[in-house]
């Protein structure tokens, strides 16, 4: 997983607000409640990049769908990796 994200003190206020809003949306979602710490968010102009890991492609799509109506975000760049307990993965070691 890419960890080269800016630290909170280096990130613009707008980015921090959108990240907080994304976490609130996911915390209120039945599939992601209490699990938002596994996701990283970056905002570049009107694009939100989301990184993290989920066990199924279905959850990856659910996450993107949950975030699709964030204000001031036109595009979700869903870089979440699917890592299955059965060994099937989109993650390259």
**Total individual domains:** 1
Number of helices: 2
From the structure provided, what is the oligomeric state, counting identical versus distinct chains?
A: single chain
In CATH terms, what is the fold-level topology? Answer: GMP Synthetase, Chain A, domain 3
Can you identify the CATH superfamily?
Fe-S cluster assembly (FSCA)
Would you kindly provide a written description of the structure presented here, covering whatever features stand out?
This protein is of the alpha/beta class and 93 residues long. It has one domain (11-82): Fe-S cluster assembly (FSCA) (GMP Synthetase, Chain A, domain 3), CATH 3.30.300. Helices cover 28% and strands 19% of the residues. Strands 1-2-4 form a three-stranded mixed sheet, covered by helices on one side. It is globular.
In short:
This protein is α/β, with parallel strands linked by helices. It has helices at about 15-25, 55-65; strands at about 40-45, 45-50, 55, 75-80, 80. The longest helix is centred in the N-terminal third of the chain and has 15 residues, at about 15-25.
Q: How is the topology of this model organized?
A:
Layout: H1 13-27, E1 40-44, E2 47-51, E3 53-54, H2 57-67, E4 75-78, E5 81-82
Parallel strand pairs: 2-4, 3-5
Antiparallel strand pairs: 1-2
Please tag this protein with its features.
single chain, 93 residues, two-stranded parallel sheet
């Amino acid at each position: 997983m890419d960890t080269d994200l800016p630290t909170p003190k280096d990130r613009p206020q707008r980015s921090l607000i959108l990240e907080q809003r994304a976490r609130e949306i996911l915390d209120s979602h039945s599939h992601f409640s209490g699990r938002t710490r596994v996701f990283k968010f970056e905002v570049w102009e009107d694009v939100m990049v989301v990184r993290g890991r989920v066990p199924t492609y279905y959850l990856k799509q659910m996450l993107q769908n949950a975030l699709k109506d964030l204000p001031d975000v036109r595009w979700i760049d869903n870089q979440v990796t699917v890592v299955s307990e059965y060994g099937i993965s989109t993650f390259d070691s």
